Structures are given as C-alpha cells and as structure tokens.
Automatic annotation (TrEMBL):
SUPFAM superfamilies: Periplasmic binding protein-like II. This is ABC transporter for sugars, solute-binding protein. CDD domains: PBP2_TMBP. One of its GO terms (cellular component) is ATP-binding cassette (ABC) transporter complex, substrate-binding subunit-containing. Belongs to the bacterial solute-binding protein 1 family. Transmembrane segments: none annotated. Keywords: Signal, Transport. It comes from Prochlorococcus marinus (strain MIT 9303). It comes from the Bacteria. GO terms for molecular function: maltose binding.
C-alpha cells in the first residue's frame, strides 16, 4: 500500500514538474515581432535588426519580412493580410500617403502611449508632417525624403529660381551645344508625376486639395499655369519627349550621362551621382524646386515611418523595436551606409555627417520647405485622376483647360461619393 502511494506521489510530482517546466519555458521564450518593410529598407536594416536581437536576446526576437520592391505592392500585401483576418505582421514601414487610409480603416494602433513630447521635439519639423490622423500619432518617422532640384555647377554659377529662369538657362545651354536637354523629371503616369506636379503647383501659388474642407483647386489659374509649364518643357525641347516615360531611374541615368543640366529627383540620387561611373561627379548641386517670385519653393514630402498594426499581440515589444530602429545612432548608420535622409534634427548638425556629406545642409533646408500630398484616405484615387489627366496633356490628347477641368470634376465626384457612403 505504501509502495503504491509512493508511486502515485512520484507520478504526481513528475507531472507537476513537467507542467511547471513547460510553463517556465513558455514564459522565457522571447516575444516574436514581425515587421513588414519594402525590400530596400529590409536590406538596409539587416545589421540593425541583428544588433537589436543581440541586445534583446531572450526577451524579444525581431524578424523583418522583406516585401516587394514596388511601393504599392507592399501596401497591397499589408492590406490583403489585414482583410483576411489576423495579420502575421506586428508593424509596417508605411509611406506617408498611406497613413490616412490605414488609420481611417482602424488598422493601426495610436503610438501616443510610447512617444512623449521630448521625442517629438527631437524630430526635424518637416519630418513630423504626415504622422498624425484625427489628432492621434499613428506613425513614427524612420527616414525623410523630399523632392530636390539637381543642377550642374560646371554649367551655371547658381541654379534657376523661377520657372522662367529654368527654361531660359536651359535653352541657352542647348543653343550653345553644351547639353542635349535642359531638364529631366518624372513624367510617367504614376505617383512620381503627382509629386512633380505638387511642387510646380506650389511654385505657382496653387493648392491641390484642402482635406478639411474638400476644396479642390485643380481648375484654378495656378493649376492651369503649372500644367501649361510642364507641357511647355516638352514642346520647347527643354525636356525630351521621352520624359513622359521617365520614372526616377530613367531621369537619373539621363542626368548622370552628362547630357542634361537640371534634374528633379529624390535624395538617393546624390549618392549615385558621386560614383566613379557618373559623368557629372563633383559637378552637382541641389536646391528646392523653382517658384514664381510671389510664391514659395517647396519639396514634396515622401517619407517612410513605422506604424503598429491593430492585430499585434505584442504592441509594447513592437514599440521597443521601432524605438531602436529609429534611434539617432540607427539613423546615422542608415545615412552613412545608404544615404537615407535622417529625421532626427541633431543629425543635420552632426560633425561627422557634415564632414562626409556636403548635401546635408541643403537636405535640412529642403525638409523645412516640404509640402505634404493631400492627407485623405482617398489619396490613391485622386492621385490617379490627376496623373491620367496630366498624361493626356503631355501626349496631346487633351488641352490643359479640358484636362484640368476633368481632373477637378472627377476628384469632386470621388470625394462626394465617399461622403454619401458615411
């Protein structure tokens, strides 16, 4: 009897020990965090992720899912996972134009519990645009991006400041046979064209859309002037006819070859222009887009930042990972290794960065001059409308007046339909 009791007690003790060990093992297993990033960022942050996992060994394990190369394909992947139910991602590296759509759909968790005013004050002013929706912080900036006007320092002593000056100096240099074309930009029917138009529209004193009032300005005098100027660039020969097929890379290659005086592109192009295979290496300056004398020169904001998805099981751990990846040291490394523009204000005055990059002061200036694309959940639809109508102007299918009136009317229809379904 005693032996039987002994074995019962032993078995009970054994089972209890196994249960306790299993419970302990589960409790000590690191929290798994998965962040979806576009391919270039996933590659650039590899060493940062490794360092985070080393520093948080046993507590948090960060995994980065390498998304597609195309920006919109990343958004499609994220949205598909959200619509199907519980997303496998805890956080997402999000483009500035996606935020209103994601936040309005209820897919994001506000970051306010983890971000205090001191942290907000550490960000360069322009980099804080596009991070809030309905008074809540949903996105924390990783890198800044802004449209820049690149100019040849070996062809001119200073860059053109107005639309008229740009055409004048381009035609002069072309007439002298020093260049084939004056100016290249993103004229293809895609998001880059919307970014180009916003800068030119600002330069003529116009406004695309006021989200709070839904006031559309695409048929305004300034808008017609902006569209007419872009068309004139092509018709006058300042820009090649092929510019209507140019995205960022085609624009870069044309300028890099030494046959063009001016280029509109993003900060990444600077690093490419300094490589040994660049025919303009050492002869390039940057500034913001041209504007009429009465209006301001701006740069379209095109930044990336982290958001936590509502379905995350571990938002606290996700917030820790985001804090690490966006830290001053992390952003400094990303700038030195991959030329990603930082968002921390102090880095624009960092002696090491200033000694290695003459472009940094101009980036700081451009960041202070940024303009945000319309902050609306319907942005993708209204941008598509603008792109299609601008393309019809460049290809001669529509007049400026007809195309911009059509863009105005169709944008209003989209906004009105959305109001009626609320």
């Amino acid at each position: 009897m005693k032996r039987r009791t002994f074995w019962k007690i032993a078995l009970l003790f054994s089972l209890t020990s196994v249960a306790l060990f299993a419970s302990w093992a589960l409790s000590t297993r690191p929290v798994q965090i998965n962040i979806l990033m576009p391919a270039p960022f996933a590659e650039s942050t590899t060493d940062l992720v490794q360092k985070f996992n080393k520093d948080h060994h046993g507590s948090i394990q960060l995994q980065v899912t390498r998304g597609p190369l195309e920006t919109e394909a990343v958004s499609d992947l994220a949205i598909s996972s959200l619509l199907l139910g519980k997303s496998p991602f805890d956080a997402l590296l999000i483009d500035v134009t996606w935020l209103p759509k994601y936040a309005a759909a209820g897919w994001l968790i506000p970051l306010d519990p983890w971000i205090d005013q001191q942290q907000i004050d550490s960000i360069a002013p322009g980099a804080m645009l596009g991070n809030n929706f309905d008074g809540k912080l949903y996105r924390w900036p990783l890198v800044a991006d802004m449209g820049l006007l690149y100019w040849r320092t070996d062809l001119m002593s200073e860059p053109p400041r107005t639309p008229e000056e740009l055409i004048k100096v381009s035609l002069k240099l072309q007439k002298e046979g020093r260049i084939a074309f004056g100016y290249v930009w993103q004229g293809r029917q895609y998001e880059g064209l919307s970014c180009v138009f916003l800068e030119v529209l600002d330069g003529f004193g116009g406004q695309w859309l006021e989200p709070e009032t839904d006031n559309v300005g695409l048929d305004s005098s300034a808008s017609l002037q902006a569209a007419s100027w872009l068309r004139e660039l092509i018709s006058s020969g300042v820009s090649p006819e092929a510019v209507i097929n140019y995205a960022e890379n085609e624009t870069l290659q044309a300028f890099k070859s030494g046959d063009v005086a001016l280029m509109r592109n993003w900060p990444y192009a600077w690093g490419e222009l300094q490589k040994p295979n660049s025919d303009v290496r050492g002869n390039v300056g940057v500034t913001t887009m041209v504007a009429t004398a009465a209006n301001r020169s701006t740069s379209t904001l095109g930044s990336w930042g982290f958001s936590i998805l509502k379905g995350s099981s571990n938002p606290q751990a996700a917030a820790e990972a985001i804090a690490f990846l966006t830290s001053t040291s992390a952003q400094k490394r990303l700038f030195l290794n991959d030329s990603y523009t930082p968002t921390k204000a102090e880095l624009f005055k960092d002696p090491e960065l200033l000694s290695k990059s003459q472009i940094l002061p101009e980036l700081a200036n451009a960041l202070q001059s940024t303009d945000q694309r319309p902050a609306t959940p319907l942005y993708a639809q209204i941008s598509d409308v603008l792109q299609r109508n601008l393309s019809s102007i460049f290809t001669g299918q529509s007049t400026v007046s007809d195309a911009m009136s059509n863009a105005q009317a169709n944008t209003k229809k989209i906004l009105m339909a959305a109001r009626e379904t609320k």
